[in-house]
């Protein structure tokens, strides 16, 4: 073992493995996946598409049909789309390509907010990046002036802003976001729109307006997490460089063909699923608003962010005893010690969760 310890990059000592909690849960509301709402017809069609796979050949290395489908759906050109094995691979590819240090720091710097999606830090540290996490304000909104100060202290190469944010579920104020983009002019600002299908607005206009903006999106949150398909919308010059860095044939044939079908012929399935989840979100929030020792952050995502008077760790354990898994961040302490993140599930799952929460808070 000492040999491995002598060889690995020292930053790995700070990191844990990204893996969901295992266990025998009746209801899993921990990973922001969509409930199983795909119609029987759509399931059958995707089965046909998967069955037509040419198993002996490598996938399309250029992901041409998929990128065309994404581009058409988004209203950009295919040369502006980079597709990866989930947004996670896109993040990793960006952090492999954009490593030229800026300013005095020997390592490149990534700036993001906290709490936010953990893979920015994980992927950055695993590649030796200097990672600066600026705390969100008291309403979990963008800390505009602290971010600008951070940029002045250490000019970043990349800034990640998730909106709607994970785990807080709220969208970042647009005027603050625009200010931050302008202040980060020398960096690439990645607006992570993993939950955009549940939000009231997207940021395509900011992508068009600012050269340093890219958008990150995924199929994982709208019913197709199994495919692992995510993508970046960015300037063609950046896409061409990322193409050199990605692994050959990164996206399996089945993921490409099924995702292409989902985004074209079956796009109404995504719309129907999101509409149902938004209705359920409203119903869930209404029920939670009636609970006395619980408060809610308004959600623009497919999950809710709850504050409980009882410590979140205790609530989490009591829910686990009832075989309901949610996500708690109590181990990180501070203001996260009373917060829980709960995915919007099916009607029955949401009702069971509210009932259990009523009993344990
Ligand atoms: C903000 C955000 N970005 C990206 C991802 C990763 O998505 P993917 O499944 O496409 O890798 C997640 C997943 O939880 C997320 O919350």
Can you walk through the features of this model?
It is built from 13 helices and 13 strands. With 361 residues, the protein is an alpha/beta fold. The protein folds into 2 domains: 2-39 and 268-360, Aspartate Aminotransferase, domain 1; 51-266, Aspartate Aminotransferase, domain 2 (3-Layer(aba) Sandwich), CATH 3.40.640. Strands 2-8-7-6-5-3-4 form a 7-stranded mixed beta sheet, sandwiched between helices. Helix 11 runs parallel beside helix 13 (347-360). The chain starts with a helix and ends with a helix. It binds pyridoxal-5'-phosphate. Pyridoxal-5'-phosphate binds at residues 32, 86-88, 117, 162, 166, 192, 194, 218, 220, 230.
């Amino acid at each position: 073992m000492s040999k491995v310890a002598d060889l690995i990059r020292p930053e790995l000592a700070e990191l844990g493995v990204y893996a969901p909690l295992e266990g025998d849960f009746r209801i899993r509301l921990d990973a922001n996946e969509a409930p199983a709402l795909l119609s029987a017809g759509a399931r059958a069609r995707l089965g046909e598409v998967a069955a037509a796979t040419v198993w002996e050949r490598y996938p399309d290395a250029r992901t041409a049909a998929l990128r065309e489908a994404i581009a058409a759906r988004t209203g950009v050109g295919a040369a502006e789309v980079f597709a990866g094995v989930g947004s996670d691979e896109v993040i990793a590819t960006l952090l492999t390509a954009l490593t030229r240090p800026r300013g005095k720091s020997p390592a490149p710097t990534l700036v993001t907010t906290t709490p936010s999606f953990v893979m920015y830090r994980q992927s950055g540290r695993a590649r030796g990046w200097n990672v600066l996490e600026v705390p969100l304000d008291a309403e979990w909104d963008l800390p505009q002036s602290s971010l600008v100060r951070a940029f002045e202290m250490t000019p970043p190469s990349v800034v990640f802003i998730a909106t709607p944010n994970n785990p807080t579920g709220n969208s970042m104020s647009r005027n603050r976001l625009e200010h931050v983009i302008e202040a980060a002019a020398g960096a690439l600002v990645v607006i992570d729109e993993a939950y955009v299908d549940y939000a009231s607005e997207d940021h395509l206009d900011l992508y068009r307006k600012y050269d340093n903006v890219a958008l990150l999106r995924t199929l994982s949150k709208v019913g197709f997490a199994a495919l692992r398909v995510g993508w970046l919308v960015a300037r063609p010059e950046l896409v061409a460089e990322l193409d050199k860095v990605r692994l050959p044939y990164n996206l399996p044939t089945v993921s490409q063909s099924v995702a292409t079908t989902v985004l074209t012929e079956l796009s109404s399935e995504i719309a129907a699923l999101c509409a149902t989840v938004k209705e359920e979100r409203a119903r869930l929030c209404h029920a939670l608003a009636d609970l006395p020792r619980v408060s809610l952050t308004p959600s623009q995502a497919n999950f809710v962010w709850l504050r409980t008077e009882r410590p979140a760790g205790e609530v989490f354990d009591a829910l686990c005893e009832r075989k309901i898994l949610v996500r708690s961040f109590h181990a990180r302490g501070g203001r996260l010690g009373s917060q829980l993140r709960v995915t919007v599930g099916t009607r029955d799952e949401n009702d069971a969760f509210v009932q259990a929460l009523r009993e344990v808070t």
